[in-house]
Design goal:
Layout lengths: L3 H19 L4 H14 L5 H5 L5 H5 L1
Helix pairs in contact: 1-2
């Protein structure tokens, strides 16, 4: 059985992809909003959320 965090994450990603596909907002804004939403929902921690920003390869992408 999947947990609440699983369904919550799938929902947030589906909404993010939908908003990007409709071009309602820029992708950067949508994914940052999704990241903040996952933090608020306690799916990921703040440290986990921003760990990628310290990776030079991630910033290049």
């Amino acid at each position: 059985m999947h947990t609440f965090q699983f369904y919550y994450t799938i929902l947030i990603l589906a909404i993010a992809i939908f908003v990007i596909a409709k071009e309602w907002l820029q992708a950067e804004v949508v994914f940052f909003g999704a990241l903040i939403t996952l933090i608020i929902g306690k799916t990921i921690t703040v440290n986990e959320a921003f760990a990628g920003f310290s990776n030079q390869g991630m910033l290049t992408i």
